[in-house]
Design a protein that fits this description.
The complex is a heterodimer of chains A (about 575) and B (about 200). Chain A is built from 18 helices and 15 strands. Chain A is of the alpha+beta class and about 575 residues long. In chain A, β1 and β2 form a beta hairpin. Chain B is globular and about 50 Å long. Chain B is of the alpha/beta class and about 200 residues long. The chains are: A alpha+beta (about 575), B alpha/beta (about 200).
């Protein structure tokens, strides 16, 4: 309070009651002046009431009262105790500045009647507490002091002021409650709108058949977070937004997925909000939102839960559809590569396959053991193989053989490396694609299958770096694999490599493999060591053992040729089992 | 102090020439909700606007009501700060301020360019340089008569946080209208300058 207060203006004395009918002129003048003063004070109280009721903050109302009272009523306010959920003192002055006085007053206020009354304040000859009321509720008390007991008129003014203050406080509290209720309502409406948006977005996904991509796109759009759907084994099925791959160990992934299935609601794990859907006992889809900073809120959890429901439906539909679609083609493919005759041909024609064109068998090996027992992963591989589908043509004929997928495709497709390379890349770093020989007669498809399998095995045994291997490009391996007299090949291997094969078998050594790489690298020790990921000294040691066991002169060109042929024959025989 | 980003509301439409209105406020946001619409509406209506501001810079207010250097150079907007007016001598001298406003009114009348005049005085300096209470009362009592005589519309802004004990009731007596909750209300406690003089005597 900074304007120089000075002394409250002197107030005229007031007669205690109405004037008599025939009072002397002086007394009548005094009476008129007192009446004018009362009217003025009441108008002041009215103006003050206007000011107070225009405020929506309790502290501001209290401040106005504390500021105005001394100028309006000849008493001194020393404090206001506001009561809501708890009581608190505000606008404290004079003796009320002492905690002990406030404590003592608080006890007295609790015992006062609803009309208020006199209270004891140390050092003050008169002290009064006035209830701040509105509609029966007591908002608190105004405590005032004076040197002498005020007149009844002053007390009336005080009570009126207290009543007006109580009304203003009640208004402010009602206003605050309204604001709070409105804010809560706005939050509720916001949450409902969000849920509606989620519902609409995901319903649209279901209706439009946007599939797994639609689910993650809708989730990403609604939450603003990267979203991903994976198989339980970690096979990526769909993603939207800047997805950071989730790469836990296989065991940990399994534990997390089981936990998510068990708890039934999204869990926070590795910077993700993750949930799992299991529409069938053998089909599990994992859905997660990026939550690196752990800030995903309840609404986003609701979105994820809703998306999980849609994912369950979609997986069930997809898998069922895939099963139905594939069953016919699978049966046909099995018959074709199994060598069943005319009936398969008729069914192929009925299903839109033109087997009069040259076809070849393609075998895709994803290179992961996990895929073999994961229906979703196999489904994903099968779906990936549809990349090879010709525009406007029927679906690629597929057949699952353990962890591998076998496809029968026209040679126009299988001759092109690019889609096969792309297919291998989409299935992971260890995936390999093998192509059997072209068949102009469907009856030769079993041979094409065997050739593709041989190519795959030889590529594995020969540690080929190629992602796509073709039987027709196996060179000497192809001759060896197609030899009409396997026994003579075994004899040749035994003759040239017998001691080394036996040594490897007995000791678990790698002398044949070392010899093969040494010959492949033209006798270069360093290149041999690098390709085997061993030291040069070890290479030298192994070659010395080879010389000791066989007596070969590895610098002799003829010996080296024979040995190169022998190690390839060995690889081919190994690959063919 | 900055007037910040307070929204420009609309000044009550029932302001008329000769109105001497008191606007009480708590805080900058509420101050701006009274100050900006009052001046903006006057400016947009082509009225002469003379304002003395204290807790915000004149240039900021001019910008916020849509004014520019040209509107200042044209004489339509005339803004001052409190240091060059209310506190020109370092403290508040009501006679000097009365002289200031009378001078501005004479000049505006002599020019005869503006049909309407809006005057605004922001009194938040009261806390910084507290004047005697009687000085404020005398000044506002004069203003009550002056505004009617000058045919201007006047808004006095008081920060309730910065009012000393007693002066609030004096201000209620010396302003015929109050701006409360976006409305201009008749002040039941107002006393005319003559009534106030009689009361004081």
């Amino acid at each position: 309070m900074t304007v120089t207060a000075g002394v409250p203006r002197a107030r005229r004395a007031r007669p205690p009651s109405s004037p008599a009918a025939h009072e002397p002129p002086l007394e009548a003048g005094l009476h008129d002046a007192a009446l004018r003063q009362e009217v003025s004070d009441l108008r002041g109280l009215l103006a003050l009431s206007l000011l107070m009721t225009s405020r929506s903050d309790e502290e501001e109302i209290v401040h106005i009262v504390a500021t105005a009272v001394p100028a309006l009523i000849p008493v001194r306010p020393i404090g206001i105790q506001l009561v809501d959920n708890r009581s608190r003192w505000v606008a404290i002055a004079g003796p009320c500045a002492t905690a002990g006085v406030r404590s003592s007053l608080s006890k007295e206020l609790r015992r006062l009647s609803s009309d208020g009354g006199e209270v004891r304040v140390p050092g003050e000859s008169w002290a009064w507490a006035l209830p701040l009321r509105s509609l029966g509720d007591v908002m608190g008390h105004l405590v005032v002091v004076a040197d002498t007991e005020p007149s009844p008129t002053t007390m009336l003014m005080l009570r009126s002021l207290a009543q007006q203050t109580g009304t203003a406080l009640a208004n402010a509290r009602l206003h605050a409650r309204n604001l709070e209720a409105n804010a809560e309502l706005a939050r509720t409406v916001g949450a409902l709108r969000y849920k509606t948006a989620i519902h609409e977005a995901l319903t649209e996904v279901e209706l439009s058949g946007a599939g797994l991509d639609g689910i993650v796109s809708a989730l990403h759009e609604v939450t603003g977070r990267a979203a991903c759907i994976e198989s339980s084994g970690g096979e990526p099925l769909a993603a939207a937004g800047p997805v950071e791959p989730w790469v836990p160990t296989r065991d940990r992934r399994g534990q997390v997925v089981q936990r998510a299935l068990r708890v039934g609601h999204p869990i926070r794990i590795d910077g993700r909000l993750l949930t799992a859907a299991r529409p069938r006992p053998d089909v599990v889809g994992v859905l997660w939102l990026d939550d690196a900073d752990g800030s995903a809120d309840d609404q986003e959890i609701v979105a994820l839960e809703h998306a999980r429901t849609v994912l369950s439906i979609e997986l069930s539909r997809l898998y069922g559809l895939a099963e139905t679609e594939l069953r016919l083609g699978r049966d046909l493919a099995a018959d074709l590569v199994g060598g069943v005759g005319d009936d398969a041909m008729r069914r192929a024609r009925a299903l839109g396959y033109d087997l009069s064109r040259a076809h070849a068998v393609v075998v895709v090996e994803p290179g992961r053991r996990a895929a073999a027992d994961d229906p979703l992963a196999l489904t994903a591989q099968s779906a990936a193989l549809q990349q090879l589908r010709e525009p406007g043509g029927p679906p690629v004929l597929l057949l699952q053989r353990e962890s591998a997928v076998v496809a029968v495709v026209p040679v126009d497709v299988s001759d092109d490396d690019a889609p096969l390379e792309s297919l291998a890349s989409s299935l992971g770093p260890a995936a390999r694609v093998a192509v059997g020989g072209a068949c102009h007669d469907p009856a030769a498809l079993p041979t094409s299958l065997r050739q593709a399998q041989v190519a795959l095995r030889i590529a594995e045994h020969a540690a080929s770096a190629s992602r796509v291997v073709r039987f027709e490009q196996l060179g000497v391996y192809r001759l060896l694999a197609e030899s009409a007299d396997p026994g003579s090949l075994d004899d040749m291997v035994a003759s040239w490599l017998g001691p080394l094969v036996e040594h490897d078998r007995m000791r678990g050594s790698e002398l044949v493999r070392t010899l093969a790489r040494f010959l492949d690298h033209g006798g270069n020790y360093d290149a041999t060591a690098d390709s085997l990921l061993i030291g040069r000294t070890t290479v030298r040691y192994r070659l010395r053992r080879i010389r000791e066991l066989t007596g070969y002169d590895l610098s002799d060109p003829e010996t080296r040729f024979q040995l190169q042929l022998a190690v390839r024959a060995h690889a081919a025989r190994q690959a063919l089992g | 102090m900055s007037i910040g980003s307070a929204a420009l509301g609309t000044a009550p439409a029932d302001l008329t020439p000769g109105d001497h209105v008191c606007g009480f406020y708590y805080g900058e946001e509420e101050r701006d909700s009274l100050l900006l619409p009052f001046l903006r509406d006057g400016f947009e209506d082509g009225a002469k606007c003379v304002a003395v501001v204290d807790s915000t810079a004149p240039d900021e207010v001019i910008q916020r009501i849509g004014g520019s250097t040209s509107s200042v150079e044209s004489g339509q907007l005339e803004f001052y700060d409190s240091d060059s007016t209310y506190l020109r001598t370092g403290s508040f001298d009501p006679d000097l301020m009365i002289e200031f406003w009378e001078g501005r009114a004479r000049e505006i009348t002599d020019e005869g360019r503006f049909e309407a005049v809006r005057l605004l005085g922001e009194m938040s300096w009261l806390e910084r340089v507290p004047p005697p209470r009687d000085s404020v009362v005398r000044y506002e009592t004069w203003a009550d008569e002056f505004v009617v005589r000058a045919g201007a519309t006047c808004l006095c802004l008081y920060d309730l946080r910065k009012l000393g004990t007693g002066v609030l009731m004096d201000l209620l007596r010396t302003h015929p209208k109050l701006m409360l909750g976006g409305l201009v209300l008749e002040n039941p406690h107002h006393m005319s300058p003559d009534e106030f003089a009689a009361e004081a005597s």
